[in-house]
Amino acid sequence: MPSHRTRLIAALDTSSYEQASRWATELEGRVDAIKLGLEFTYACGLDAVKKLSARQELFLDLKLHDIPNTVASGLKALAPIHPALMTIHALGGPKMIARSRAMLEEAFEGNDSRSRLLAVTILTSMNEQSLAEVGINATPLDEVVRLGRMAVRSGADGLVCSAHEITALRDALGDAPELVVPGIRPAGSSTDDQKRIMTPAQAARAGADWIVVGRPITRADDPAAAAQAIQDELRTAVP
Ligand SMILES: O=C(O)c1cc(=O)[nH]c(=O)n1[C@@H]1O[C@H](COP(=O)(O)O)[C@@H](O)[C@H]1O
Predict the structure, then answer these.
(1) Is 215 a known ligand-binding residue?
(2) Where does substrate bind (predicted)?
(3) Does the structure show a pLDDT above 50 at 1?
């Protein structure tokens, strides 16, 4: 049973700066970090990312996946924003991950709060059938552990996975890799396009370092109250 606190990241998925800014203000003090991703960044730009994250810890989730040089150079360009966490796809392979880590070490030399590199394993919107559709004939669990081992060995500081794989990843890799877990749905909420889901309490008991929650917060009538309810659930889940 984990004894550390599972922290809450709110995914602010919107193309509107005003909307994201409103959420960020409402959620300040109620979430531990905000996540800005493809929709916000493409629509509003990196200056807006920088501005919005001035007061809160930032997970910049752009899921880079390209040849090693292109991904590492992309990360170098993002480094001045200084997100706490950034994502690349584990499927880019060991060289892409190793070059990315080396680039971040270089970009943050002399700064002991380097952005941490997360490798996305298998998206939480995929199940065994969706894996077969892209030619991967394995269970999500086996594939996540296989990719997770490779990614951490290659230099990833942590992994994005579903809560279903936390126990197996901890058995394989120990406590050091930071496990960031989307596909979280409080009991009774809509699953949307997510396939491998768990509740906040289940993810906390499994040992998630962070959970990522978007629509259950942002589509709630009262996003601040929804975030607070998740924090309360996390707090009481682990004695
Ligand atoms: O990297 C991610 O954050 C991510 C990986 C993954 O496997 N699944 C996943 O849902 N996410 C992100 O987590 C957030 C989940 O949002 P909701 O489904 O609205 O809670 C979205 O911003 C996704 O981009």
Answers:
(1) yes
(2) 13, 35, 61-70, 124, 185, 194, 214-215
(3) no
